[in-house]
Amino acid sequence: MDLDVFVTAHRAEWERLEHLLRRGRRLSGAEADELVALYQRTATHLSLVQSTAPDPMITTRLTQLVARARATVTGTRRATWRDAVRFLTAGFPAAVYLSRRWWIPTAVLSTLLAAVIGWWVGAHPEIQSAIGAPDELRQMTRPGGEYETYYSSHPAASFAAQVWTNNAQAAAMCLVLGAFLCLPVIWVLFMNVLNLGVGIGLMSSAGRLDTFLGLILPHGLLELTAVFVAAGTGLRLGWTLIDPGPYSRRTAMAQRGRAALGMAIGLALVLFVSGLIEGFVTPSGLPTWARIAIGIAAELLFLVYVYVLGGRAARAGEVGDVEAADRSAELPTAA
Question: For the residues 98-118, what does the mean pLDDT come to?
Fold first, then answer.
């Protein structure tokens, strides 16, 4: 396509569209119909330019023009309670469900790695001595030591808020950093797994693994699941940059990026529940079996939520993105 000829042929239409947009609401019925027709035509022009002769200046001008026209034609829409209900009952669980091929392997491999690190630390005294001095390790692992008092060292409400903030930040980092070819996500995930494995190894070597698991499992099942979901979604986002599938790279990244942003909000809510358990249940005087049972129940409820509500929504076509009416129009591009 000869770009100069194309611009010359359609410049008058673009200028007319700009003129109508500047007039805003002071349009007659015929002019409003003309604006809609010009918007659709200019969107087609933008698609053609992007696919055959992607000149930066023309593309920028048409992108801005199409965006302004779309805002004028469709208007702005405020978020409502309906949007929140749709997000919680369909969008978020569907996004988690559709990402299961990424976060389930992530969870399995991370758990196995934590177990291996735990065995390695617990079975090798020289590794333990590299982690800390014997007195420091005893202070951490003894009855009433740092591993146990950590969960009751602050008032439950403030501790739950602190835990929630830290975990939400870690989950958000996994989601956001996924766009950087997955590598930062792997690092964040590895550091979490390493800390867990070292705790397992040190408490196991002190003969107190049951105490450690009794403290970790009540909140850790749901908390780690949320982290694994965030990491898996971040890895999926990074892989989309490498292999966008049947869509253009920009379209695929935009869709997955919007879904990841929604998942960040949803996972913050999941981690809020986990933080409440960690702040109020883990350090409580309940028997160990009761605390673990609460953690298992919370985990099962989340999985049912994802596989029942999310699976149903995914089969109905939900992908965790914003509604179709709120997305930018995607026109076919040339092969």
Answer: 93
Structure tokens at 195: 């800390």
Dist CA 80 CA 93 (whole Å): 19
Helices (H), the chain: 3-23, 29-52, 56-74, 81-86, 92-98, 100-123, 125-131, 134-141, 146-149, 156-177, 183-205, 209-242, 249-276, 288-304, 311-315
Do residues 192 and 170 lie in contact, with contact meaning Cβ atoms separated by under 8 Å? yes
Task: Say if residues 72 and 17 touch (Cβ distance below 8 Å).
Answer: no
List all residues 6 or more positions away from 86 whose beta carbon is below 8 Å from its beta carbon. 323
Handedness of CA 308, 314, 317, 319 (dihedral sign): positive
Q: Say if residue 78's pLDDT is above 50.
A: yes
Q: What per-residue confidence (pLDDT) applies to 111?
A: 94
**What is d(CA 232, CA 249) in angstroms, rounded to the nearest whole number?**
19
- Where do we find the tokens 């739950």? 160
Q: Provide the whole-model pTM.
A: 0.69
For 148-177, what is each residue's pLDDT tens digit? 777 766 565 655 666 566 666 667 677 666
Distance CA 299, CA 306 (A): 11
CA atoms within 13 A on the CB side of 103: 25
CB 246 within 8 A of CB 264: no
**Rounded Cα gap, residues 32 and 180, in angstroms:** 43
Neighbours of 44 (CB within 10 A): 15
| C-alpha neighbours within 13 Å on the C-beta side of residue 139 | 5
Going by the DSSP 8-state scheme, the letter that residue 334 receives in this structure is -
CA 26 to chain centre: 43
Question: What would the pLDDT profile of 174-227 be if each residue is shown by its tens digit?
Answer: 766 666 666 778 888 888 899 889 999 999 998 988 888 888 899 889 999 999
Q: How far apart are alpha carbons 271 and 166 in whole angstroms? A: 10
Q: Which of 180, 172, 176 is nearest to 238 (CA)?
A: 180
